[in-house]
Structures are given as C-alpha cells and as structure tokens.
Amino acid sequence: MQEVLSYVRRCVDDYNMIEENDRIGVGVSGGKDSVLLLAALHRLSLFYPKKFTIEGLTLDMGYESMDFSPVADFCRENEIPYTIKKTAIKEVIFDIRHEKNPCSLCAKMRRGALHDLALERGIKKVALGHHFDDAVETLLLSLFYEGRINSFLPVTFLDRKKITVIRPLLYIPEKMVRRTSKKLGLPVIFNPCPANGNTKRQEIKELLSDLERTMPGVKERVFGAMQRYPLTGWETEK
Question: Which fold has domain 2-228?
Fold first, then answer.
C-alpha cells in the first residue's frame, strides 16, 4: 500500500485533484481497481495535508450473483460511509434491449446513475478507479476505432451536473493494482457481466501485451506522450 500511496499522492498533486474539506464519493463497482482506490484514498485521508473525507458509492446493476456485503464490511470496519443503489441497468441492456455491443450504453447509464447518486448524497466530487493501463488503452481505442487522438482526463468538470470527476490511480499500472489488491486481501467481487473479457478494450489490452514483449516500455512511452504532447487536460500542475 505504501508504494500505491506514493503514486496516488503524486498523481493527486500533479493534477490538483483534492482541495481542502473535499467530500469525495468513490465509485465502487467491486472490481480490483475501485476497491483499491477506496482503500488508498481512505489511507491518504489520514495524513494528506488537505483534509478530506470519502464515501463509497455502489450501483447494484441487477446481477443476482453479486454480493456487496464484503465491501460493506470493509467500509464499516474503516468507518467509511457507504451507499448501494439498486438499478435496472442489467435488465435494460441485456433483457430488454438485447444489446450486441453493450459496453458503450452500459458505461453511459452507469455514469449517469453514479452522478445522480453522488448528488443525492450531496457530493460534488467523484473518484473513479481508472489506472495507467486504462488511459493507454483508451487512447488506442480512440485512435484505431474513431480516428481521434483522445482519452479520458485526469480531472473532468461536468458542467451540466456541476460534478468534478477525478482519477487518482492514473499513475498505477494494472499489474500493481492486481498484485496489491491480492496481497492486502481486499474485498474484490467477481464481475458476472456477459461481455466481460470479450470487448474491443480486451483486444487492445492483448495487442499492448504483445507489443510489450517486442518493445518493452511501449505503454510508458505512450502515456508519457499524452502528458508531453500534451493532450488537452493532461498538462500537469508542476
């Protein structure tokens, strides 16, 4: 966790993600990324110079096999407020619409529902668990499938809902997320989504894995290019 916190703090500082007295809602899907983010921000809140608090926010997508009680127990043990909101997202996408390519619509619906939940809780800043690999993969997805050089931003202000979205795990590679979550025994929950592991993002992930074998460090160079180019919104504060 100490290694993770060093990356998180540098990312938070570089992009001025946290202000004094912030109340941050952490989007917790139950996956390794979001659960590690919850644990890391909790630890960071204990010593960061700017005082802030966190709350866990979970959307129940409607999968009967998903049990969020281990996350609820973790939050209770660490005195983190935690809210679960039931949704019909799974039913709409798979049972009603029978989407063949569900990821885009699912992401849009989840974003809207999470932001609404944050506002219901009086929260204006939301933290998401996107990490280093997610950023590189998103850039290549945009380039290969849309013909654009684009990725999500470290910090995004949503003008319509007046919510700020931050991504404090951006400097952390996925392998570190996986290793740390396992080592700390964090309450990671299996994702039963039918599309899990069968997406365009998975294809890009496998492509990057192949490239890393022949061109070690390629992901670091792509990520560095995003900051040095820089893409709009990727300029660091320092």
Answer: Rossmann fold (3.40.50)
